[in-house]
Write a structure and sequence with these properties.
heterotrimer; A mainly alpha (294); B alpha+beta (355); C mainly alpha (273); A: MetI-like fold; two-stranded antiparallel sheet; 73% helix; B: 355 residues; alpha+beta; five-stranded antiparallel beta sheet; 24% helix
């Protein structure tokens, strides 16, 4: 980036311009992470005093069934939700990429689920899953898909599906936008050439567009994985992590300890989450940086 | 304001290592002069302009304006401390401001009182014939109009030095010609020392009081336009200046009875009148207009066969092989058509010898 | 051509399915919010009663939450864009070592799980006596949204020709003047869409607000709606949906109007690499 043809304005000025950014990021993100890391070596429960216990919080976490359940749930949820988001998001992107009248309106449609607070949309979904009069049971019963009303948030599998729908609904639009940007970067000459070569629309997509979308899809996959790893809002509002902790994510599990005043153990759990997330972020940055390095 | 450059050097460091863009350039630019920097792309001429503007810092060497050191060991004055104005290739008009706002911009930055700004902007606009455009945005203007706004913005500050970075290269051919004439006139009227960067030798020849030819960061020759044309210092300048370009031929200098001559592979081409030449390999250069092509042999001519005859209007550009070297010559004789046998003579007085 | 007709039909079917998928929850929300009882939508006609309750009952604090959200989000967006503009200018225009490091460091930071910050932030804000104030929210929000803003602004600033700032410098501008007299006005659409995105991000934030606020004097809308309890036992779905509708309607409108800017900003921030 630096080098030839750059206007001379001293290096010191540049640091002055960038200082506020670094100040905020260090004060409210990097130091908190360091602080959390530090706390994770202590037994630190409100009103009980602090005690250095080194790795005990971590060893406890590995044998803690609650943590294992939360970790297992989070991974399972990622494994199911992320591919679904990518599939639906890509489908939306392909539709949005076509010549439709009122293009802007269709795009706004897709954008709206993304744009509103997930805590608010989670409340709407909560009502949709209401046992007695929610929309989900209304449709399930009247269409004959179910014999009677389904107890969505009362069972582990029901809760999982409920969360899945609410989360995919909220995040597929984001994937759609990224993939749409990727689609629009595919040279139209290439598609026209494939057309001339008598490929069908589906063949054009499979043989020309999809391979060119691979980098964009990889970025979306990683980004969605990292983001789903820290899933919190929807679960907190929609199922509260229940029933029986079956839909508690690692974030929610750590939050419950913080909220209960156990900062030491909460810190250890959130540091474990941080480390997994950091590894994936590193991979993401490597991939994102790949195009930049040239 | 006169400008003096002493062993000016500029290095850049990139991923591929360090390279020198300007190498020990010494120049004296006179007060009120229209000075042209000419060279192919990548020769360092734009870097030199940026150094003059203060947009870049030299790696070593000195720049003085009117005897005041602007850049040198331990000293560097940025653009704000030099009263220079610049006209850019892309015009670099501020798209969010009107034409008035663009021309007034440097005066606003210098905190000139509002009534004076208005007066000076209107005067500059009138001088360039763009008064009617003062309320428009740059996006609504044609290329030529934008060009005028850029020039008005540069002259409105009454700078000590005017810098032009290929300002005509984005105009179409006809407009370029007209603007060239006006620019020269304007510079004469204002009498501001001007430095003009271009890769177009015609522009350089028509505009410049003096022209400095640059190649690979090194100064090749500094002379008046006619001086460059008549006495090119080396092969590069010889071929760069003039159109169609000068013919260059590798040949051998021989001496017969005290008289020097140039020949190729035993064919004696032309006697040489210049003193102080030594026998051995050399190149000779001759402009296409200095080769006489005739239907019948004349003394000192060499028989040739015309490969190509391209009409240029008044003249016809002939291409043929002269003792194995492809050369071109200008003729007025429309009878010299492709495939014809003819006779070419190099005018001895017009031959340049490069060792 | 038969296959073309089939394709058109498939396309329209897909587009309609997409719209139904995206909009049904909102239509449902509006329907319930306008009904007297959530279990009998539209029975006995529609009524604005729920809206009246939500807006007219001070003890529900809905308007407090809304005001808090608007102030916190607006402050966060403005501060973020200011700081990010300075940094984006340095990164795109000034001579500085480690630009790529800053960009990618900041990108990595934005991927951190928020839960790993809240313990420390809660203690910090408690020590500073800032719990349940706007400052407690705005400061971490700014830090949290900065990476995205920076990436978007860098991509917008990158598109402005370098000759423009060279012209400004020759015309006598200091670096700060180049930024606010030339770069910012020229990149105005990009700056506005960055501000809009920052606002949406701050407006939607949940977990910081959950742990750093304790009541209506600073609590924001997402937390307020998530914790909305009726005055009497049963969950007041009608009220909640009315509150949600009032909250989401402006965002839906903004999104519809500025969809092009939002999409441009988002995809620049996300796909750039």
């Amino acid at each position: 980036m630096a080098g030839r043809g750059e206007v001379v304005t001293g290096g010191r000025e540049a640091y002055f311009f960038i200082a506020p950014l670094l100040l905020f990021v260090f004060a409210f993100i990097v130091f908190p992470i360091a602080g959390t890391f530090f706390s994770s070596f202590f037994s630190d429960v409100t009103f009980m005093g602090k005690k250095f216990i080194f790795l005990s919080n971590y060893t406890h976490a590995f044998s803690d069934p609650g943590f294992r359940q939360a970790f297992g749930f989070t991974l399972t949820f990622i494994a199911v939700a992320v591919p679904l988001e990518l599939f639906i998001g890509t489908a939306f992107a392909v539709i949005l990429d076509q010549e439709l009248p009122l293009r802007g309106l269709w795009r706004a449609c897709v954008l709206i689920p993304w744009a509103i607070p997930s805590a608010v949309s989670a409340r709407i979904w909560q009502l949709i899953y209401n046992y007695g009069y929610g929309l989900a049971n209304f449709i399930a019963v009247h269409s004959g898909l179910a014999d009677g009303p389904v107890n969505w948030t009362g069972t582990a599998s029901g809760s999982f599906i409920a969360l899945l729908a609410a989360d995919v609904w909220k995040t597929a639009p984001f994937v759609a936008l990224i993939v749409l940007a990727g689609l629009q970067a595919v040279p139209s000459d290439l598609k026209a050439q494939a057309r001339v070569d008598r490929a069908t629309s589906f063949q054009v997509f499979r043989l020309v567009t999809l391979p060119l979308l691979k980098p964009v899809l990889t970025v979306a996959l990683l980004f969605r994985t990292i983001d789903t790893l820290r899933i919190f809002d929807v679960i907190y509002v929609l199922t509260g992590g229940g029933p029986g902790g079956s839909t508690t994510s690692v974030s929610l599990y750590a939050y419950n300890y913080f909220a209960g005043g156990d900062f030491g153990y909460g810190s250890a759990v959130s540091m474990l989450l941080f480390m997994v997330s950091f590894g994936l972020s590193w991979l993401y940055v490597r991939l994102a940086g790949f195009g930049e390095a040239a | 304001m006169n400008i003096s450059l002493k062993s000016l050097k500029k290095d850049f460091t990139s991923a591929r290592g360090k390279f020198t863009v300007l190498d020990s350039v010494d120049l004296e630019i006179k007060e009120g002069e229209f000075f042209v920097l000419l060279g192919p792309s990548g020769c360092g001429k734009s870097t030199l302009l940026n150094l003059l503007a203060g947009l870049e810092k030299p790696s070593s060497g000195e720049i003085s304006f009117g005897g005041t050191l602007m850049a040198g060991p331990g000293k560097f004055t940025g653009p704000r401390g030099r009263n220079v104005a610049m006209v850019f290739q892309s015009y670099a008009l501020y798209p969010h401001l009107t034409v008035f706002g663009n021309i007034a911009f440097p005066l606003n930055i210098a905190k000139v009182p509002k009534p004076e700004i208005k007066e000076r902007v209107e005067k500059a606009a009138a001088m360039l014939g763009i008064t009617a455009l003062l309320g428009s945005k740059p996006g609504e203007l044609s290329g030529g109009e934008r060009q005028r706004v850029a020039i008005a913005r540069a002259v409105v500050r009454r700078p000590d030095v005017l810098l032009f970075d290929e300002p005509l290269s984005n105009l179409d051919a006809q407009l370029r010609l007209a603007t060239r004439v006006e620019l020269k006139k304007l510079q004469r009227e204002l009498g501001i020392t001007s430095i003009y960067v271009t890769h177009d030798q015609v522009e350089a020849m028509t505009l410049g009081d003096r022209v400095a030819v640059l190649k690979d960061g090194k100064l090749q020759q500094l002379d008046t336009p006619m001086g460059l044309y008549e006495r090119p210092a080396n092969r590069f300048v010889a071929q760069f200046i003039g159109f169609p370009p000068m013919n260059l031929m590798d040949c051998t200098l021989t001496e017969e009875a005290g008289a020097m001559a140039a020949g190729i592979g035993g064919v004696r081409l032309v006697p040489l009148k210049k003193p102080g030449l030594k026998t051995g390999p050399a190149s000779i250069g001759i402009r296409p207009s200095d080769i006489e092509v005739s239907r019948e042999p004349v003394p000192g001519s060499v028989p040739v066969r015309i490969d190509l005859a391209e009409p240029l209007g008044r003249d016809i550009l002939l291409s043929f092989s002269l003792a194995g070297t492809e050369v071109s010559a200008l003729t007025g004789d429309a009878g010299l058509t492709e495939g014809r046998e003819a006779h070419a003579r190099l005018i001895p007085e017009k031959v340049h010898v490069f060792i | 051509m038969k296959s073309e007709t089939t394709e058109r039909i498939l396309l329209w079917a897909g587009a309609l399915a997409m719209a139904v998928f995206c909009l049904t929850p909102f239509l449902y929300m509006f329907a319930v919010s306008l009904s007297a009882r959530p279990d009998q939508i539209g029975a006995g006609g529609f009524t604005p009663a729920n809206y009246a309750t939500v807006l007219g009952t001070p003890s529900l604090h809905f308007l407090d939450y809304l005001r808090n959200s608007l102030i916190v989000s607006a402050l966060s967006a403005i501060i973020t864009v200011l700081i990010a503009s300075l940094a984006a200018y340095a990164i795109t225009r000034l001579e500085m070592k480690g630009k790529a490091v800053v960009l990618f460091f900041v990108l990595a930071v934005s991927m951190f799980p928020q839960v790993s910050l809240i313990g420390y932030l809660f203690k910090l804000m408690s020590d500073l006596g800032l719990i349940n104030t706007y400052a407690a929210l705005v400061a971490p929000y700014v830090a949290w949204i900065l990476p995205l803003s920076l990436w978007i602004l860098v991509s917008y600033f990158d598109q402005i020709p370098r000759e423009l700032d060279r012209a400004a410098i020759v015309d006598g501008c200091s670096p700060a003047q180049v930024l606010y007299k030339v770069i910012l006005p020229v990149a105005l659409p990009g700056v506005l869409s960055t501000a809009l995105l920052s606002f949406i991000f701050a407006f939607n934030e949940f977990i910081f607000a959950l742990i750093l606020t304790t009541d209506y004097s600073a609590r924001t809308i997402p937390v307020g709606i998530a914790m909305f309890q009726g005055l009497h036992g049963e969950i007041p779905w009608g009220n909640i949906m009315a509150a949600s509708a009032i909250t989401t309607a402006p965002i839906m409108l903004l999104t519809a109007v500025f969809q092009r800017h939002i999409i441009q900003g988002l995809t620049r921030g996300a796909v750039k690499g």
